[in-house]
């Protein structure tokens, strides 16, 4: 078993409310990602689970048992940090073996466990080197191996890939998912990188200013963001948001445009709304009757696609287009909107409107 549940976690540092009622349920065996911008309270949440933070309020349950008062050691959790925290004078082998030695395992048990985890992480040939003789990526693998070498109740990982270059990060994302599948343990993984979150997680909790905004699968968080903030934080290029309201069967923009009212919404006339549309749900090719008139503002070629910036009134819409798209800044464009995939948010509360009709 390896369930982790936290309920109503509160923690302030002086004026800063780092955690403001954080409640999360991590199922056994999940790859659970806590995603949020810098300062959202991700590390503090992880430290609270590990027992490294004295809480103002709230409880931590491990395997359904109240562990709020337990020492870090009694919780039986393994933590991997952004900084590798390896012993510099010890070889990779000794670093990896250290948690087992602390538990007084026999030499043959240690050797077998180190061999197994080293093969999982493809670091067998590095075992006799000291940290100074390893690259950043190799050190990260050794640090991971040290956490994975024993079978704790759960693994807590605090942005472990942050210090790696982009290529290694991408590789390690795939590796970590593979390792999680082969080990079958519970991973609680903290990151501010939404691509990491969407690509690795079974479930994502989105955190902002010490409050959980949404918990769901990557698809749920991306396709049905609970509020305007989550919609803006998750997804690249950023979702375009346009002020508007409903008038009968029309959606009327504050910038003067009109679109057909999305079939799935039953919102009342006149209520201030925000229409949210992702770049892939906008098109500069003529595809339907739901279109907005604007002018080309800029082109951002990204190899496999080009992001077209289109100015509609004072707003810039991000539109995903084919890499071959061309144009001159200032030229008139019609942008087709896939209203079945668009989002509406209450402009005052930021909350997503019910999507019952979809
Ligand atoms: N020991 C501390 N003393 C004072 N303030 C702290 C302390 N630890 C965290 N904070 C503050 O609490 C808030 C949450 O910090 P936390 O490290 O949990 O955020 P985070 O989401 O992990 O950010 P990052 O992605 O930058 O690591 C921040 O405003 C931070 O400055």
Could you describe the 3D structure shown?
The chain is α+β, with helices and mostly antiparallel strands and 358 residues long. It folds into 2 domains: 4-226, 3-Layer(aba) Sandwich (Rossmann fold); 237-346, Nucleic acid-binding proteins (OB fold (Dihydrolipoamide Acetyltransferase, E2P)). 25% of the residues lie in helices and 33% in strands. It has 9 helices and 20 strands. The chain has helices at residues 42-50, 72-75, 92-102, 107-120, 136-148, 166-183, 194-200, 218-223, 228-233; strands at 4-13, 16-26, 31-35, 57-62, 65-66, 77-80, 154-158, 187-191, 203-208, 211-216, 240-247, 250-253, 258-260, 273-277, 282-283, 291-301, 306-312, 315-321, 332-337, 343-346. Strands 6-7-8-3-9-10 form a 6-stranded mixed sheet, sandwiched between helices. Strands 13-12-11-14-20 form a 5-stranded antiparallel sheet. A 5-stranded antiparallel sheet has the order 15-19-16-17-18, with no helix packed on it. Helix 3 (92-102) crosses helix 4 (107-120) and helix 3 runs parallel beside helix 5 (136-148). The relative contact order is 0.12. The model has no long low-confidence stretch (mean pLDDT 91). Bound molecules: adenosine-5'-triphosphate. It holds the Pfam family ABC_tran. This is ABC transporter permease. InterPro entries: AAA+_ATPase, ABC_transporter-like_ATP-bd, ABC_transporter-like_CS, ABC_transpr_MalK/UgpC-like, Mo/tungstate-bd_C_term_dom, NA-bd_OB-fold, P-loop_NTPase, Transp-assoc_OB_typ2. Residues 4-234 form the ABC transporter domain. Keywords: ATP-binding, Cell membrane, Membrane, Nucleotide-binding, Translocase, Transport.
